[in-house]
Amino acid sequence: MIGVFNRIARPLLRALDPETAHGMALNALKLAPLPNAPPDDEKLRVEAFGLTFPNPVGLAAGFDKNAEVTDPLFRLGFGFIEAGGVTLKAQPGNPRPRLFRLDADEGVINRLGLNSEGAEAVARRLAARSAGGIFGINIGANKDTADRAADYVACIGALARHVDFLTVNISSPNTPGLRNLQQANALDDLLARVVDARERAAIGSKPKPLLLKIAPDLTLGDLDDVVGVARRHRIDGMIVGNTTVTRPNLRDAAKAKEQGGLSGRPLFALSTRMLAETYVRAEGAFPLIGVGGVDSGAAAFAKIKAGASLIQLYSGLIFRGIGLIGAIKKDLLGFLRVGRLEQLADAIGRDAAAVTAEPWPT
């Protein structure tokens, strides 16, 4: 089925407007009779956040915003899936067009603006889903909310019981002012409130892991503050990072002028550098998920060596197809054999110090 999809459906989707193609891909996953993915090699198993992942390849937030196709996605071979971003109240996001493929750069610019059906609708859908697979939800704040921390608290209350982990997204560039929550004082207040909400949502059960998703555009001074606050509040992990507002050496000059966050291959160097910088600052206090420009096994392994325990992808699927998932897992096993490593954990962070010593990516 994956081969058929790549040969027939992918060329059709690539010919369509990106947002229309995205909607068609979701519908195709709802209807396709996908078989279960084969079991993963035990060498790919990862322990992180108190969870056991069958493999380190995850789907990043943004593809399945409203948790519509979680079960079909697991059948593609992902080790975990993150849906969302979900906002407390339903909101339409920004006007279309708001999603742009940069074919020459293998990148994507989006200014979707956290379009969401809202936490209540997503909670109802999650309550009805089949069990199986590590599933997380990415939560954000509504554009017009005065107390944004209150939105995150309410989302945790509505969604925590239905998921395996929660991601606090404070790094979308398409909600005005949201990235201000990365500033030390605002973040300190936010994390105090969301950690408390997570504990209250876990009455009678184990608290769900709480992750923080940050932007790759932070200054190193700001990153010092973010990691310090995260460690002080004992969050369970961080995702590095979201899309970038920078435009590093893009060949598609016309689309490069579009406002929004850039993802895909052009983000790889910056996001990997920020991953390594975060890893050395975290000092093992919590695991990291590396995301940004993962479109091959080599890119995935570079993220792991820069400090990621797990990786996520999304834009790479647009340009490489869903066969990318299996190809990355196969390549990771090959890298372990070549490096004579018994497990992926042996490679985590081994290049982080070297990456932080390189010239800053441009």
Summary, kept brief:
The protein is of the alpha/beta class. It has helices spanning 2-14, 18-31, 70-74, 119-127, 148-159, 184-201, 220-232, 253-256, 268-282, 297-306, 315-320, 323-338, 352-356; strands at 46-48, 51-53, 57-59, 80-86, 99-102, 107-110, 134-139, 165-169, 210-214, 237-240, 261-264, 288-291, 310-313.
Topology:
Blueprint lengths: L1 H13 L3 H14 L14 E3 L2 E3 L3 E3 L10 H5 L5 E7 L12 E4 L4 E4 L8 H9 L6 E6 L8 H12 L5 E5 L14 H18 L8 E5 L5 H13 L4 E4 L12 H4 L4 E4 L3 H15 L5 E4 L5 H10 L3 E4 L1 H6 L2 H16 L13 H5 L6
Parallel strand pairs: 3-4, 3-13, 4-7, 7-8, 8-9, 9-10, 10-12, 12-13
Antiparallel strand pairs: 1-2, 5-6, 6-11
Helix pairs in contact: 5-6, 6-7, 7-9, 9-10, 10-12
Notes on the structure:
The strands form 3 sheets. The chain has an 8-stranded parallel barrel with strand order 3-4-7-8-9-10-12-13, surrounded by 5 helices. Strands 5-6-11 form a 3-stranded antiparallel beta sheet, with no helix packed on it. The chain is built from 13 helices and 13 strands. Strand 7 (134-139), helix 5 (148-159) and strand 8 (165-169) form a beta-alpha-beta unit. The longest helix has 18 residues, at 184-201. It has 362 residues and is of the alpha/beta class. It is globular and about 45 Å long.
- Strand tally, please? 13
Beta-strand level of the residues, as a percent range? 15-25%
Structural class: alpha/beta
Major sheet characteristics: 8 strands, parallel, barrel
Q: Terminal Cα separation, in Å? A: 39 Å
Q: Name the strands of the widest sheet in spatial order.
A: 3-4-7-8-9-10-12-13
